Amino acid sequence: MYSIFRNLAIIILSAKFCGLVARKCKAPQVVGEILAGLLIGPCLLNLVQISDTISVFAEIGVVLLMFSTGLGTNLKELLRAGPIATLVACIGVFVPLVGGTLLYGAFFGLGEIGSPEFYRALFIGTIMTATSVSITVATLQELGQLKGFLGTTIVSAAVIDDVIGIVVLTCVIGASSGTGTGLGAVLINTVLFFLVSIGVGVIIHYAMKWLDKRNPHTQRITVVSIAFCFAMAYIAEQYFGIADITGAYIAGIVLCAMDDASYVERRIDISNYVIFAPVFFASIGLKTDVSGLTPEILLFCVCFVIVALLTKIIGCGCAAKICGFNWPDSLKVGIGMMTRGEVALIVAQKGLAVGMVDSVYFTAVILLIVVSSVATPIALKLLFHKYPPVPHPSQLKAEKA
Question: Are 354 and 288 in contact (CB under 8 A)?
Fold first, then answer.
């Protein structure tokens, strides 16, 4: 039982040390924290193994990270970015879905439409559709680009992407089992969740503004805000089947207009920066174990990672270009959307549970998460330094108006 304290001490110290080394090397801090997980995990030193307690700490970290992102959102920018983010998310799901399906077919064959092999290929494509914005959020935050129009577009598109990914997952599993009953339920639950979020959001928004005026810059505001974040994360996951991080992000959006939003954001960032976020980023490395790889599986894994990264960049990047971004900013959108994390793991685990894929393919998912989590922050930092963001045409129109 008490070994968890030893494990947390090792994780936090190694994550912070590697994070500082990464910053000295001009790389984002999150890269160092992920590499720390690889260093102390089964891949190398094997000092710490992933456990239920560490997974809970990691989940709290990503939930607080998304809540903080919502709190720091510019509501006007979010509304302006909404239609663009939706198109980016839709194309960003379609292209990887097709790419993953064709990749599996190239290695193992597609079979006839409707056959188990066909649905297995389709499921590999479904795994590729997932986007994890947490790594990108931390990088954009570090670069000071999170609250701009470009950063808001990426975060909004990733949240919409997760919702579409859940619908696609339900379609594939329902079709493979011969029953499509789950699809209607998911669509209804998704709509209901956002309707409930709007209703609850309006009530909480005015209640928190009233509380904020009576108790400005007090711990009460922070405590109630965190409670609302966790409540929305629970409601989203438990009652509507939506990812908990989406609920946390919506909670942040609801509170972003109150006067003390920046104050609450700073208070949350302190505890998350010290404990929960390092555990989350290190846990990505801890989940990686490459001991069981064979040459054939390794080749598939490499191709899986390459196709998954390229299809997101191409799909989301081209969608961004269609929506009026210049090529460098479109590339930033594509790269910002290529990270995979907890949602990809959830999709893969669901496939394992229903027997759609073998456990051997889980290695490919873990490698994709690690590679994308390390490559994305580095690529974004290089792009933002070389090509500063250019105002989007919609921003220029708004300024003229």
Answer: no
* Residue 249: half-sphere exposure toward Cβ, Cα within 13 Å: 27
Helix axis angle, 362-386 relative to 277-286, nearest 10°?
Answer: 130
Closest CA to 212 of 163, 246, 259, 265: 259
Q: 170, 183 in Cβ contact below 8 A?
A: yes
**Which structure tokens are listed for 223?**
């405590």
**Please, are residues 85 and 153 in contact by the beta-carbon 8 Å criterion?**
yes
Determine the straight-line distance between the first and last CA of the chain, rounded to whole angstroms.
62
- Per-residue pLDDT tens digits for 137-184: 888 888 888 878 888 888 888 878 877 877 787 677 766 765 554 556
Is the Cα dihedral 353, 355, 361, 365 positive or negative? negative
Buried b (16+ CB within 10 A) or exposed e, 369-392: bbbbbbbbbbbbbebbeeeebeeb
Boundaries of every domain in the chain:
3-45+52-400
Contact 157, 89 (CB under 8 A): yes
Separation between Cα atoms, residue 14 and residue 312, nearest integer Å = 31
Alpha-carbon gap, residue 167 to 343, rounded angstroms: 13
Give the integer Cα–Cα distance in Å for 130 and 119: 17
pLDDT tens-digit map of 79-125 = 777 888 889 999 999 999 999 999 999 988 887 877 888 888 888 99
At the topology level of CATH, where does 3-45+52-400 sit? Na+/H+ antiporter like fold (1.20.1530)
- What is the rounded average pLDDT for all residues in the chain? 84
User: For residue 364, which of 314, 289, 310, 311 has the smallest C-alpha distance?
Assistant: 289
Q: Are 323 and 84 in contact (CB under 8 A)?
A: yes
